[in-house]
Design goal:
The strands form three sheets. The chain has a seven-stranded mixed beta sheet with strand order 6-5-11-12-13-10-14. Helix content is 38%, strand content 24%. The longest helix is centred in the C-terminal third of the chain and has 25 residues, at 297-321. It contains twelve helices and 16 strands. Bound molecules: flavin-adenine dinucleotide (FAD).
Length: 368
């Protein structure tokens, strides 16, 4: 018998899952509580150029600018990364969502907006249909099916200012565990007349808006944004670390994206990992409906494919978390001298630290 699939959440993960399933001619409906999914924009849109190409989405209309450089500030040191070609893209998240919605719909997925599904409704749906929970960091689906916790949460605050960035090709990252414990702060050009300033702090350290205010005054960002009009601002949350279970075979429930904790522990980036999770969940569901394979193959495949990189992100993040401002500055200065800036500039795929480390070691061997 033909099965139906319900996807909860029309963010990038849910839309990629639905698009993948619809391509097989399977009946799939996506529900989102918002009338206009993707808005208001609460997150930034930096993705590595390599990662973006792996998604298979035509994002050109969402592109605001390209990044070929980064300045990583730590203590008294600044690590400058400058690539010959753009290594990352900045996307307008609202437009990206619209593009992904259009692609899912044109493959035949039905989209129901302005409908928040309660835990009771989701459990009732699961009696007959397969459920994909792509409902973000605070997942109702994960809660309804007791799928365990993610490792930790980061609280964010970001503001977009209407002002011309001094350098449209570079992002500034500030590593300072007394100001942004658990993540970092950033200043990023979002197009030629928009500057985004943001911060992420571990949820155990509390208020992200207070941390944001401390950041802008500590680093003199106040001067850069003085007099600039605020376009948008707000707090949000990022889950860090895969959830304990991302498939419930018995109830036929899968999680993807932030709901599954598919983000990088170093940066909180989840567009590429989460979309990839959505695609893999979609493939597993299609395979299950067409060939009777187990849904749990999704969890093992996702963990296998990303195990090393996720572990590496987690290791780097833990090591960073244990250092004071002066020590981070010393590490950055050492890496600077060892030529990591060049390796990052030449390769620069932030999603794959294993590849960066491999290239760094190879370069050291060639140089010595
Ligand atoms: C400040 C900030 C900056 C970031 N910067 C970057 C970055 O530069 N690069 C990057 O790669 N990642 C970044 N991220 C992470 C990235 O935004 C997320 O990983 C990604 O958006 C997750 O997508 P998703 O589809 O899993 O979830 P979401 O985009 O959160 O979508 C979930 C959807 O589910 C809907 N929903 C929730 N509950 C229900 C319900 N019960 N019923 C119906 N609908 C429901 C919501 O309305 C929402 O539309 C950032 C995040 C933040 C907060």
């Amino acid at each position: 018998m033909q099965r139906k699939v319900n996807v909860v959440g029309a963010g990038n993960a849910g839309l990629m899952a639905a698009k993948t399933i619809a391509r097989y001619g399977i009946d799939v409906t996506i529900y989102d509580q918002k009338r206009k999914p993707g808005y208001p924009i609460r997150a930034s849109g930096i993705v590595s150029a390599n990662g973006l190409s792996r998604l298979g989405v035509n994002c050109s209309k969402a592109l605001t600018n390209s990044l070929s450089g980064a300045r990583i500030h730590a203590g008294n040191s600044v690590l400058e990364v400058k690539a010959k070609a753009p290594v990352a893209k900045v996307l307008d998240r609202g437009i990206l969502n619209e593009i992904c919605m259009g692609e899912a719909a044109s493959e035949g997925a039905s989209i129901v907006v302005g409908k928040r599904l309660s835990a009771a409704e989701i459990i009732a749906m699961s009696k007959n249909d397969i459920i994909i929970g792509a409902d973000g960091a605070v997942s109702e689906v994960a809660k309804a099916f007791h799928m365990g916790a993610v490792k930790r949460y980061v609280l964010t605050y970001r503001v977009e200012y209407n002002t011309e960035p001094q350098d449209i090709e570079s992002v500034d990252i500030y590593l300072n565990n007394s100001i942004s414990p658990g993540l970092f702060s950033w200043v990023c050009p979002n197009g030629k007349d928009v500057l985004e300033v943001g911060i992420g702090v571990s949820s155990s350290h509390g208020n992200s808006k207070r941390a944001f205010d401390r950041f802008v005054s500590h680093y003199g960002i106040t001067k850069i944004i003085s007099g600039a009009k605020i376009i948008s601002e707000g707090a949000s949350i990022i889950p860090i670390g895969l959830r304990q279970r991302i498939v419930d075979d018995r109830n036929q429930v899968l999680l993807a994206g932030d709901a599954a904790g598919q983000t990088k522990a170093t940066t909180g980036g989840g567009i590429v990992f989460g979309s990839q999770g959505g695609i893999m969940a979609g493939e597993a569901v299609a395979d299950h409906i067409i060939h009777g394979s187990k849904l749990s193959s999704y969890e093992s495949k996702f963990r296998r494919k990303n195990r090393l990189d996720l572990a590496m992100h987690s290791m780097i993040s833990r090591a960073y978390g244990s250092l004071g401002e002066r020590e981070i500055g010393m590490v950055i200065s050492m890496l600077n001298k060892a030529g990591i800036g060049k390796v990052l500039g030449d390769y620069g795929d932030m999603d794959r630290p294993t590849e960066i480390i491999k290239r760094f070691i190879l370069r050291r061997k060639i140089v010595s």
